[in-house]
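S1.2 Input.
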Amino acid sequence: MNKINRWVEDLDNADLGKFILRLALGIVFIYNGWFKIQNIEMVITGFGTIGIPEWMAYFVSYAEFIFGILMIVGYWVRHAGILFAIIMAVAIYKVTGQNGFSLATQGYEYNLVLLLMALAVTTLGAGKYTLARLIKK
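S1.3 Output.
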């Protein structure tokens, strides 16, 4: 048991945790942003049905994609986190909130997780595993 405890204690690396969180969030937003960019007409229609202007479809699509990349490489991480949190808050309010919590009923469970992850990154910052730090070395 002592070996397991020592191994677990060796995992104490807040910067690695920040990187993993950034990586997960970045991958999700890159994927969804790219999907939206490739299907922009569908996104415009969907946004229109919930009363969001057409230009916002373009903004959200490209913001998710570009800031997802920035999130992974560690640039403008807090800005990206705030932007992602706002996007998810709007998604919860306008799209999934009325369906209850459960993802099984198309509720806001997944969007809430992304919102909270974005807020966590916003408060924690990028950590030391960033492209900028790698380039400086």
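S1.4 Remarks. The mean pLDDT is 94.
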